[in-house]
Amino acid sequence: AQKVTQAQTEISVVEKEDVTLDCVYETRDTTYYLFWYKQPPSGELVFLIRRNSFDEQNEISGRYSWNFQKSTSSFNFTITASQVVDSAVYFCALSLMDSNYQLIWGAGTKLIIKP
Amino acid sequence: EAGVAQSPRYKIIEKRQSVAFWCNPISGHATLYWYQQILGQGPKLLIQFQNNGVVDDSQLPKDRFSAERLKGVDSTLKIQPAKLEDSAVYLCASSFGRTTDTQYFGPGTRLTVL
After folding, report:
1. How close B3 gets to chain A, by Cα (Å)?
2. What are phi and psi of B58, to 5 degrees?
3. Is B108 left (phi over 0), alpha (psi -120 to 50) or beta?
4. Can you tell me the mean pLDDT for A43-68?
5. In angstroms, rounded to a whole number, what is the distance separating the alpha carbons of residues B102 and A98?
6. Cβ of A37 and B105 within 8 Å?
7. Cis? peptide before B43, omega within 30° of 0
8. Which residue of B has its CA nearest to A96?
9. Tell me, what's the pLDDT at B99?
10. Do B103 and A103 touch (CB under 8 A)?
């Protein structure tokens, strides 16, 4: 089965706290891509990152970082020193050859940053 | 570079009426997608175009939904007649060309069917 699990439905933290959003995926393919998108209240899905299965290097972009671990089939996303503007729904997605590289979406995690 | 454009942003109609949504992808992007996103869920792919040809429309309810991309650029998605369960956000996305390319999304059209 190919699927993406985001077990955290909603997370609420106070501004400036660090927060990690979990993403676990299932696939037997050896070639696949993982994505994170942000969906603020305005509704637009904003692309954050794309990783291919052969690149396990962690990525850091400002306050955002991603930890890709094939051994645990996880692609977790950490926001350091969270800000109110980070409040949004975050989606993890998987694309692979067996599905014609169409995006397989997780259910999303709603992140609330309180001032 | 301009992003994916969609219009209208909001639409309210009565059930059994018709509605159309428009999408203009990022310039140079050959692949265009329409998604339906029901509140609290991830997006569901309705149809995928490569230039003006349909790649996948397996999840498009063809008895009431139709989509076209006549010149390989703009696209329209139509619902006729609308049902209450069609209330959702309709998202358009585009990618450069290969199926492995990243998809970039427009702001979406929020449809309410009363």
Report:
1. 11
2. -65, -25
3. left
4. 93
5. 17
6. yes
7. no
8. B100
9. 73
10. yes
AA identity, residue B30 = A
For residue A105, pLDDT beyond 90: yes
* Residue A46: Cβ within 10 Å count: 15
Nearest-5° angle of CA B24, CA B29, CA B31? 90
Which residues in chain B have Cβ-Cβ distances shorter than 8 Å to A25? none
Residue range A60-103, pLDDT digits in tens: 999 999 999 999 999 999 999 999 999 999 999 999 887 888 89
Choose among B43, B56, B102: nearest Cβ to A100: B56
Average pLDDT value for chain A: 94
Residues of chain B with pLDDT under 50: none
CB-CB under 8 Å, B105 with A46: yes
In chain B, what's the furthest Cα-to-Cα distance? 39
- Nearest neighbour of A108 by CB, restricted to B42, B105, B107: B42
Nearest by Cα to A84 from A10, A28, A17: A17
